[in-house]
Amino acid sequence: MAKLRVAVLAFLLTVGCRAAQREAGPDVDAQLLQEVRTLRVAVQTMAADVRTVKDQLAERSDEEAPEASSAWPDALWEERGPDTNALAKIKLPDNATKDDVREYVRAIIRASEGQNSFSSDDPQVAMLAKIGPDHVDVLLEAGASVGDGTGGFYLPMAVERLVRPEHCDLVVAALPCNRELASIVVRMGWEREAKDVLIEGLRDSPGSLSAEWLAAVAALRDPTTYEGLVAHFVAHRYERHAVYEAIKDLPGLDVGRAVAEAWQQAKRGDLDEAMDMVPIAAEFGHTDALALAFQVVSDPEAHSYFVQQARRIIFRHTDARGTRGELGQWFKSNKDKLVFDAQTKEFSVPSE
Questions:
Q1: Which of 280, 272, 298 minimizes the C-alpha distance to 233?
Q2: Which of 60, 90, 85 is closest to 72 using CA atoms?
Q3: Which residue has the higher pLDDT, 114 or 71?
Q4: In the beta sheet, which residues pair with residue 339?
Q5: Residues 1-20 as b or e (16 or more Cβ within 10 Å = b)
Q6: Per-residue pLDDT tens for 16-73?
Q7: Of the candidates 313, 311, 323, the residue with the CA atom closest to the CA atom of residue 347
Q8: Where do the structural domains in the chain lie, given as residue ranges?
Q9: Are residues 109 and 41 in contact, defined by beta-carbon separation less than 8 angstroms?
Q10: Phi first, then psi: what are they for 175, rounded to 5°?
């Protein structure tokens, strides 16, 4: 039951992130990145809570377990943000030594453990950034130890505030252990310096790299990476739009083939995954992608989010207009006559 609820939360938050991206455009990418990081850590934390409670229940007698099992899932959903009291007690000494700074960072990480609610506005970011650019190495060391879970959530954001050109070698060296740093590599233009690490990650981590990492690889414009980039694009369940934007203009890459493969994969998933790929697939003339948009807009039980998305796709690629019922009828009457224009990206019905 708890695993199901965690999965549902992940689905809903992801839909919300993508909805915000489509409404607000590329300017919100940085905010969405933080939301995705928050989602990842929240799910990791709740999964850990599930394992802990299961272990506790396993230790109880058979008579006690049923009563306990009916009560514990709701407790996992109590929001636990920053412990401001614990954080207020953590002070960075004046004229701090490197060891003082390490202990200060460790104390912030310890105080952040157990949270399941995170934000880039949480006090930990400013507290960590207080150590200054001279101690970025301490943040990177800590990131290598704790990764991007719970207490480590804030480390890349603090590094991003403090990073300077002279930190390139440090960031690249830390990248294999903390992949969240890929966003810094892209922002600072360090793709060439990180080339070996980026390509090794592409080769060894099929389907699990962030869109930022893949964007960094794409920036290399290295044809030997194209096959791996396409494989990640096809497999990337939640960030296909971002990956598509990174690879669509690569010279010599068959984007049409990549889109066709990703669309076939997306159709095997749920409606959310399929609709996420429809705008891209429709741009490349996939009539069945357009058909799905008309199917959604004609369904009286379809969620308003999907209906609005379907309308935008229909209005972009056809001259069909009208009520939901009229749109459905338009497609029913014309689906076998549609012709796609690769230049205008529009489906039209030839004149009689």
A1: 280
A2: 60
A3: 114
A4: 348
A5: ebeeebeeebeebbbebbee
A6: 444 444 444 444 444 444 454 545 544 444 544 544 444 444 444 444 444 444 444 4
A7: 313
A8: 1-58, 97-162, 176-250, 254-346
A9: no
A10: -55, -40
